[in-house]
Amino acid sequence: MVTRSQSTVAPRNARQSSLKPKVVISTPSPSASTPKPARTLKKAVFGAAHVDATAPKKAVSETLTAATGLKAPKPKKAKMVRDSFTMPKVEYMVLDELKQRALALSQPAKKGELIRAGIKALAKMPDAEFLSAMSAVPAIKTGRPARAVIA
Question: What are the φ/ψ torsions at residue 61 (nearest 5 degrees)?
Fold first, then answer.
């Protein structure tokens, strides 16, 4: 690697004597400290500790982590989907009431958590109860509500 050890701008006395500035290029000496290559994973895993094949996977990963200092790979996160929907204000207020109810039971909840819990409850219902719950919900026009005219 080539580095410049001095600036290319000439000092004041060199400019007056109309001499060109000298640029000194220095290269690192071979005896300079060069980084050693890191141990490969194979050497670190097989050279560090003996792992019993009958041990549970969690214990094996903890043993490897403790012996090698390497972290086990994290499980992949579930992919999230963001969506929007329209609901009547009365039903939206029920979400606030349910949030207050959960807070009173020492289990604070967000609107999204309440909706997801409701979906799980609907999924567990038998068909007859599910149809009666769905018939209790009126169909509404989709899309964003119209802007209110301010008079």
Answer: -65, -35
> What pLDDT shows up at residue 90?
92
Q: What's the predicted TM-score (pTM) here?
A: 0.46
DSSP letter string, 38-98: PPPHHHHHHHH----TTS-HHHHHHHHHHHH-PPPPPPPPPPP--------HHHHHHHHHH
**How much is the pLDDT for 87?**
86
**94 and 66 housed in the same domain:** no
Domain assignment of residue 107, given as a range: 89-135
Quick one: average pLDDT of 64-87?
78
Listed in sequence order, the residues at least 6 apart from 51 whose beta carbon sits closer than 8 Å to its beta carbon are 60, 63, 64
Q: Residue range 93-115: average pLDDT?
A: 95
CA distance 114 to 119: 9
For range 118-137, the mean pLDDT: 95
Say how many domains are in the chain: 2
